[in-house]
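tool_call predict_complex ligand=6-O-phosphono-beta-D-fructofuranose
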Amino acid sequence: MTKRIGVLTSGGDCSGLNAVIRAVVRRGVGGYGWRVTGIRQGTLGLMTRPPDVEDLDFGVNDATILRLGGTILGTTNKGDPFAFPMSDGRPLDRSTEIVEGYRMLGLDALIGIGGDGSLHILRRLAQQGGMNLVGIPKTIDNDVAMTEDSIGYWTAVAVATEALDRLQPTAASHSRVMVLEVMGRDAGHIALAAGIAGGADIVLIPEIPWRLDKVKAQIDSLKTAGRNFALIVVAEAVRTEAGVHVTRGQGGAQRYGGIGHYVGETVAAATGAETRVTVLGHVQRGGQPVAPDRLLGSAFGVHAVDLVAAGKFDRMVAWSNRSVIDVPIADAIRQPHIVDRDGALVRTARGLGICLGD
Ligand code: F6P
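tool_result ok
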């Protein structure tokens, strides 16, 4: 029987989303002969009247969008339908409009590509409205549980690693300590992986509280060993020594940002070193997806459509042990997957002599 399935991207964008969309179309339209409807701007597209959608067909079936960063469908990380921000500032529950939009389109299932926040919202909507949901994890932060990797993570790691490749020669030329602040809301995965791959001397992550005297000791010992520069990577969610997050913006729009400058200034004062700070920001989310994100996106998209075909819903596709599996969405959103303080990468960093600030 011909089905009509919807696909949407929700939350912050990242590289590899278009590879997922393409795979959903190839499998859904090409493989099963179904109709695949792209929903624009995440759940906002289902809230709009008429729903803001487009049929996805061979335009996205070629290999062009596989290489594109961002999402051809658009997305938002501000439209929680259960507390939708109205123009007068009041939050309004608009969840029923979304379920209504799903029904108006005659969708048999919805494939939602999102991080833990989006998957949480989509699941609540699905349960409330009886929508058939399959989730696909994406986030540069890589903090969705039950999957080893999420879409976008490896591209962000590649960008942060390249930043270190570029910072190292200028650090050495000027005898400076370079601080690189990377993203990762409440998880240090990007900082740790890029720090190892990019040869950092110090990596500060939110999972491991740091001390200035430990950072100073590392810089002093590098100096004693004849090194004239140092590379520090700090994740945006790292707290100051006083245990405070550094944020920017106001009210509900608070975002992490600024811990890199705090570290740069405190390290300069403690060691006398000349420091410079680079805040990498959203470049980690854009650009061409690296091969692992295209691969993951393709595998996830195909498996998600196969789940719909098998009538298996309320499941999230996941990467485990070089294989695509699926798990209950509820298990994936129960708690975020943060860096394991005793895990392989922490042990690798310590084994390499990288200071983790403790
Ligand atoms: O969750 C992804 C992420 O890029 C975080 O790493 C970062 O803190 C946040 O989104 C930035 O959000 P925005 O795009 O709203 O500035």
